[in-house]
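lol ok so funny story. i was supposed to be doing the assay writeup but got distracted and ended up predicting the structure for this chain instead. priorities right. anyway since i did it might as well share w the group, maybe its usefull for someone
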Amino acid sequence: MDKKQSKLRHIAKTLTWRVIASLTTFALAYLFFGDIKKASGLMAVEVVLKMILYYLHERAWFNYGHLGRKDSE
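and the output, tada:
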């Protein structure tokens, strides 16, 4: 698989995972609250918050996570 295909695959997997995770959050919130408006609100907050947290997680791994990397020296 070339780099372009790999990037497209990662983007597609990221988007499909985000949909699955958000729908799961919505379903659980609806079961707990019994209110579509509350469940939708929680899902909306969750989508934004988790994207920010994922980005910060990736940056931390990039800067400090050396697991699996080969030393450049």
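The CA atoms of residues 26 and 42 lie 7 Å apart. The two ends are 28 Å apart (CA to CA).
back to the writeup now i swear
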